[in-house]
Amino acid sequence: MTTDKSILRRFYIIAALLVLVFMGMGYKLFDIQIVEGQKYKDIAQQTVFRNFNIEPNRGNLYDTNMNLLATSVPKYDIRFDAVTVSEANFQKYASALATELSKMLGGSKDDYLRKLKRARVIKNRYVLIAKQLDYSDYIKIREFPLFNLGPYKGGFIAEQSTVRENPLGKIGERTVGFGNVGLEGAFDEYLKGKQGQRLKQKIAKGQWKPISDVNEVEPEDGYDVISTIDVNIQDVAHHALLEQLEKFEADHGSVVVMETKTGEIKAISNLGRIKNSTKYYEKLNYAVYEPHEPGSTFKLMSMAAALEDRVIDTSTVFDTEKGMVQFFDRKVYDSKRGGYGKISAAKAFEVSSNTAFAKMIYNNYKDDPERFVNRLYNMGLNEKIGLKIKGEGEPKIPHPEDSNWYGTTLPWMSFGYGVSLTSLQILTFYNAIANDGVKIKPKFIKEVRDKNTLIESYVEPILEESICSEETAKKLQAMMKKVVEEGTGSNIYNPNFSMAGKTGTCQTEYWIESGRYVSSFVGYFPAEAPKYSCIVVIHKPNPEIGYYGSTVAAPVFEKIAQKIFIDTPLKDEMLREAIPSNFASSSYENYYETSQKYKTIMPDLTGYPAMDAVSILENLGLQVNLIGQGTVIKQSIKKGSKISNNQRINLISS
Fold first, then answer.
1. Does the pLDDT value for residue 111 go beyond 50?
2. Of 168, 169, 188, which is closest to residue 178 (Cα–Cα)?
3. Long-range contacts made by residues 185-188, C-beta under 8 angstroms, separation at least 24?
């Protein structure tokens, strides 16, 4: 009896334990399915399906004339899911698919068929068929046998990516930029668009297959940005700079061309030499990021300060003392042996006398150097421009309170040593002088558009404070014109169009070794009614070939100015005063007016410089075959003849 009770007790205990276990299991099932059911469903779903971000197409980047600078091109990777295809469909269409793949992609049909069959045997759900197809090929390949059945029946997988292409190639590559640099980086907020989403299924470790060809959330393409760059001027600037870099075996250089009244950057070229090579390419945006000692181009700033403070006038005379003046333990030299004797301030600027400028600034500010520095600060030379393009270099203007301010700092500042500015910062100052003292902020963008809808407009120039009085600006303009006509820039003087500017030659990295120079020229053209300002800076030319700003940098400026001068009058209906009358025939004006009105009458170009004639004829829509490089002595189409677009003409020049 006792044994029976003991057995019964054990049975109850076991039964109770089983009830508790089942109750626990029931609770857990309830908790999993009801209380936290959604959580676990989401986890399970995410392990099999996941939404992936789809990058939108970036907006197009255009130049000022709507030529493409950068555009997004869709590319497609094609893969094959060998598992989802039925055996019947595979046997029916695999051979035909291999045939079409062979025709489109090259290679043999047998190779493709073996690839498809092997994928079928090993149950590969993600075998690569083709990479980076363009859209037209993608459309074709998805209609191939088997693939045309879609992702589930035909195993067709297409993965889209976007590639950014630059139609200009290497020209302006750094200006256009990529990632967060250049125009691409500066206006990313407009260009980037909004991401979409696409649902994919996990088919193997690290492999995800799109569920369908339709996105769950469609990406929104970015806006189009119309920049201020003119590809024609960019092309001229690039090749003029490249030619000079190669000629003087320089390390690197930059050119910037800016429209005077608007501040629009029309061209910006930055070329650096590949190490241990003679090749140059767009390495860094030197014009924006690289501060350097400007040398004699800073004399414009020194002269502006002295004139504004009225400590001198253009007629104030300075003794250059045989080309050498000593300040404390250091000596200042002029480039001309024996100096220039006693010369006016205006003449000192024209011939770029270091001794005269050192005396001009030191003698008038030595008792109160802060007055000179404050004047430079008031002209904004110690501040960044505030460009949209990232990476603008920090300007440096020493102050008397600096720990490294010495007795020689002031005279050396007068001719551009001890200060640092970027090329674009220097150009902005010169451009202000061309604008009678009114400073205009450089800009790289004109409009933002969503296809044909205007989103933002940046047409109006951003005017900043005047850097000096109009009276001072006019005096500086006259001096810069004289530099080109009779001074250090006279080697680029052209009687047919006027230019104004300043040469600059400065030693650089002199703490490493002597013989390293920065050669520069900055100015504007035409001199009387400035339309464009331009700066050319070339670093470390071979001194055995040449290093002065007049011989290294100024010719680049002149080539750019000449090319723009030749083209601009045609676009602006060729102002008569811009036509070099000594080249034109007496009847040319009548022919020109008629041809511009109807563009069907051939002008007489006998006596014209060959390149001027080519530019005129190309603007009339003709195809030119030029023989020789001098002046035109014969043309195959007689003057007064009717001409048509794309008609060929032969020019023979001396």
1. yes
2. 188
3. 185/389, 185/390, 186/387, 186/388, 186/389, 186/390, 186/444, 186/445, 187/61, 187/225, 187/388, 187/445, 187/448
